[in-house]
Amino acid sequence: MRISEVTAHSGVPATTLRYYEQLDLIRSTRTTNGYRDYAPEVLERLSFIGVAKKMDLDLEQIKWLLDVTETGTCTNTRDALHPVLTERLREVEDSIRKLEELRVVLASSLEHVATCPDSSEPCQSECAFKSLA
């Protein structure tokens, strides 16, 4: 398949395909006239990359996982993927906890700001954040 066909089937822009090729995430051969020629399996790799990106894995991790799946068995892939996903889940849960704490702080500050009385006096910078003190 030519790059335009891969783009049409996968929805991945040509610039991204070239970048993935530079990183050796996907491979192509060159035709005699210099066009990139991709094997049909590239669509499966792009799908894998897309799912891994949805899990917010970085491209280095994705390349490693692609190498594992390419050279190993399903058991090897599972055993390699499990700790990566476990760590990623821990990171997400930590982020959710921090965001929940932030939500509480913002809600409290919003409530405080909404109840500030009108005044013609200069506002004190700490006024909006008084509830946090």
UniProtKB/TrEMBL annotation:
Q: SMART domains per the record?
A: HTH_MERR
Do you know which SUPFAM superfamilies this protein is assigned to? Putative DNA-binding domain (SSF46955)
Q: Which PROSITE patterns match?
A: HTH_MERR_2
Entry-linked Pfam families: MerR_1 (PF13411)
Residue ranges of the TM segments: none
Q: Which UniProt keywords apply?
A: DNA-binding
Q: Which InterPro entries match?
A: DNA-bd_dom_put_sf, MerR-type_HTH_dom, MerR_fam
| GO molecular function terms attached to this record | DNA binding; DNA-binding transcription factor activity
All copies of domain HTH merR-type, residue ranges: 1-68
Keyword NAD in record: no
Its recorded name reads DNA-binding transcriptional MerR regulator
Native species: Nesterenkonia sandarakina
